[in-house]
Amino acid sequence: MKELTTRALSGLLFASILIGALQLKYACIALFFMFGLICLSEFNKLIHQKNIASYIIFIVLFLAVAFWENLFKSGKSLSDISQILLVISVLVNLLLIRDLFSSKSLPSLLSNHFINTTFYVSSGFVFLLLIALNFENYSPEIITYIFILIWINDSFAYIVGKNFGKQKLFESISPKKTVEGFLGGVFFAALGSYVIANCTDSLPFTNWLIISVIVSVFGTLGDLVESKYKRQAGVKDSGKIMPGHGGLLDRLDSAIFAAPFIYLFLRILNYVS
């Protein structure tokens, strides 16, 4: 009971800080920057990397995107750069998904370490920020509701899986995840998208529904990817910063993995509208 209370209070504090910070542009930038450094530190420990180059790459990438308009007075070049980063990040994430179905370890060579820290962890936070920046028009609504959809999916995947789960989803990587839990998460996230669409006019229901599916599918895959890294490292959690939850990367793995795919969808919407 004590552990459950600790977990609930820790999660509530995390959600409150996150949602509060998202309402202000520079608070959002500061929080994602801090979260990015912490998650990068936890990930580097998982892959046994001590080089500071990954931190330098993250800092340069993140701050360049955050303050591009202030530095260069134009968003066009940022759009081109983010497009290049998007293509590479999506490709790297797809390769990580492919490796989930393989018995071999996820990339472990030093060169691949930098590919993963840059295009898996660092770029995930860059795209979360780009989603919030909303093509140079900061909008807290979209990024806030995306996190709510992630939490709905995670919560109901756990509840449905715990009570009705029988068929394992990826037993070799995450024994507790079930097909029933996954489908439950997708279903309730879809219901959540309907409620969200009626609470905001930022996007129509169909678009929110598609985002809920992206969040559910790629968020779950992101959780599995991190689980495989942890299994390879022989640890249960990525860290201990959140009592009852483990590391910050354990809480944000779904978000950073799904972020490039959500941004890709929003970019397509922006292009055709």
Please tell me about this protein's structure.
With 273 residues, the chain is mainly α. It is built from ten helices and two strands, in the order αααααααββααα. Strands 1-2 form a two-stranded antiparallel ribbon. A hairpin with a 3-residue loop joins β1 and β2. The protein is globular, with a radius of gyration of 18 Å. The mean pLDDT is 89.
Features:
mainly alpha; two-stranded antiparallel sheet; 273 residues; 77% helix
Largest sheet: 2 strands, antiparallel
Counting structural domains, the number is: 1
The coarse silhouette is: globular
Q: What percentage of amino acids are in beta strands?
A: under 5%
- Euclidean distance between termini CA atoms: 51 Å
Helicity, as a percent range: over 70%
Summarize the structure in short.
The chain has one domain.
